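Record passed on here:
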Amino acid sequence: MNTILRKSILGVAGLAFTGGVFAGPVAAHAADTTTTHAKPVAVSVQGDKLIPHGVQGEQSRIELNDEQVANVKAIIAATKKAGMDERAAVVSIATALQESKLENLGHLGDRNDHDSQGLFQQRPSSGWGTVEQITDPEYSTTAFLTGLKQVDGWQDMPLTKAAQTVQVSAYPDHYAQWEQQAADLVAEHWNS
C-alpha cells in the first residue's frame, strides 16, 4: 500500500477513535480467541432481571480460561460492592467481553488504541485513572459502574445503548452480541 494512502487511512482511523474507547486492541487480540456466533441460549434463572429487553442480533460466545473467569468474578464482586444489581453486572461483563474478551490487557504496543488498557480498555488520558488503576479489575469495574450510574435510565435501555453511553466506542452496536453470554455468566457466578 502506498505511503500516502496508508497515512490517510491511519489519519482517518485516528480521528474516528479519538472520542472514546476503541476495540482495536481487542480486534488485534481477537485473532488468538475463538468466537462463535450462536442463537441465544436460554438460562432458566434469567427471566426479566438479566435480559429485560431480550438480546439484539446474533450472539457471540467464547470459551473462557481461568483468568477470564476470575475477571468475571471480580466484576461481579465490584458490582455488588457498588450496591448495584445483576443487570449492572450483565452490562459490565458484556462491555468487558467486547473491549478485551475479559482479559486484563496491558499496553499492546502498535496494536494499542491510543493508551487504552485493562478489561474495559479505559484510557488514562481520558481521565479513567492511572495505568495501575485501570488494569486493576475492581477499580476499572467501579469506574465503569460510576459512569453507568450517571446514565439516566440505563436500567431501561438496551444493553448496547447503556454500554455505549459510558464507553463512547467507535462501534456502538458491538456490545449487544455479548449479552447472552454475559447473562449466562452472571447467572452462574452471582451467588458463588
